[in-house]
Amino acid sequence: MSDIFNTSIIFKSSIFATPVYGPTTIGNMLWFFIILVLAVIIAKIVSLNLNRFLKDRVRKNDLNLITKAAYWLIFSIGFLTALPNLHVDLSGILVAGGIVGIIIGFAAQSVVANLISGIFLIFEQPLKIGDNVLIEDTLIIVEDIRIFSTIGKTFEGIYVRIPNEKIFTTTITNYVANTARRFEYAVEIRYQDDAARAIQIIEALIEDEPFCLKKPGPSVFVDELAADGVIIKTRIWAPSEVWWDIRTTMLWKIKCALEKDGMEIPFPQRTIWVNLDDGDSTPKKTIPERNHVAEVRIHTCKPSHPALEKSHPNSITAYNGPDESDKE
Questions:
Q1: What is the pTM of this model?
Q2: 180-260 — its CATH code?
Q3: What is the pLDDT of residues 43-67, one digit of tens each?
Q4: How many of the other CB atoms lie within 10 Å of CB of 183?
């Protein structure tokens, strides 16, 4: 307490009360520089801690941008805090700064939104680099998380840039955030095949696969008696890192094992019933027999080819009127 009192006495001494220009004294200038030095020290500490905290979460370029922004923000606050010691009227500066800030805010609204969303994404971490995520209708593998946007690659090898504002305000489905992931099959066998035997074969295959998890465990059961066969539902859990490989491998193993045991995948079947009852009152349609005489007559009267008229035994010569001899 005495140290504080002695310090206040020192600052109220005649030396520090000597005016430099206008009402500004040496003590005011000293306080101004002390506040600036404290602001620089605090800004350095904050930027170093941010660098240490975000080192493994953000790429190097974005990390430098974040630390510099934090440093200059704290320094600016300290500068504005120390400026009244120089008896500078801040009302005009604040009004002008407010107008400029409003203009910049409207002009760079989307940029600021993406920046703030990027900062929240870095701290919240709903997705990480290498994650397989679905953002709205886009399925990507996250390649990079930047301040303003996130870069991803589709399974077709196409790079996609998504603004951070869109990511922050939409639904994110992360397929690898959980350590385990489930997949299922609908295996259909014929009605004459043994469903219990099929379940035993599938369970044995799952037991032999080391990547098929036991906790949570698999589930194999008869799910439906369909029109063409019996549907056996198979649900398996696997680590998220190898989920796709196990899903494709196990399906082929189940198919080969069931075929080896004599079971087959049923083809679509339909049973057709034909009514042969004699008591059916529906009149039956009869086709009349062909008249041979009429057929010969039609064939004889049919005009023949001109080249065959003389040689054809049944040819008919067209009548063109009486000739000269008939007229006499």
A1: 0.53
A2: 3.30.70.100
A3: 888 888 888 887 776 666 667 777 8
A4: 16
